Amino acid sequence: MKKYITVLACSLFLSSPAWSGEMIDDPLLSMVIVDQLEVQVGDGDDPLVWEAEGWLGYDLNKLWLKTDGEYLDGRIEDVEVQALYSRAIAPFWDVQIGWRGDLRPQPERNWLALGVKGLAPYFFDVDAAVFIGESGQTAARLQAEYEIMFTRKLILVPDVEVNFHGRDDEELGIGSGLSDIEAGLRLRYEIRREFAPYVGITWKHLYGDTADFAEAEGEDRDDVRFVIGLRAWF
Questions:
Q1: Three-state SS string across 90-145, please?
Q2: Bond prior to 105 in cis (omega within 30° of 0)
Q3: Stated pTM of the model
Q4: Residue 135: what are its φ and ψ, rounded to 5°?
Q5: In whole angstroms, what is the distance from residue 10 CA to residue 3 CA?
Q6: What is the mean pLDDT of residues 50-79?
């Protein structure tokens, strides 16, 4: 993982205005967004789930770090980390390349990540990527969300995530083809722009062999959960 982050950081530095000799009217900036930090309540266990990302860089070139995961019964059950070099190619759109690591559950999986991230027409926030694994595995993911502003402080956010895999990974209970769709609806109240508690609901459905693997472990194809959480950025 360290070598991937080092390469990305070097690429960011070499492309900076200071290195190229240009006048520095494009300052080095950073941002961290904890988009979801929530307890999910439903049948069975009630995990703590997080989704966060941050970036460091300039107007055109940035280093992005992304992570999401699940904490349950005193241990981390699932965790994914991405380290990406991001380059702006159009207003509101970046291309990204880097490393994705699925650190939990075991066995660990490492991927080359290639994607685009930006603001689509009608203000849909889109993050789409394809992944190439160490042993020829392939995967793809599409995430999208939209903000509906009832007032300046009360905001409803529908979101969806769709995952595809090129072949079965029985060790991790993942089947080929469309593996799962997860949709959510979260209503947040911005006490400040940087601090917003929320409540909501999520629904996840498993497909194909992924659903069969889950049912063999005593899990359901469908899972509906109520959530209460916090969104923050700085």
A1: ECCEEEEEEEEEEEECCCCEEEEEEEEEEEEHHHEEEEEEEEEECCCCEEEEEEEE
A2: yes
A3: 0.87
A4: -110, 30
A5: 11
A6: 95
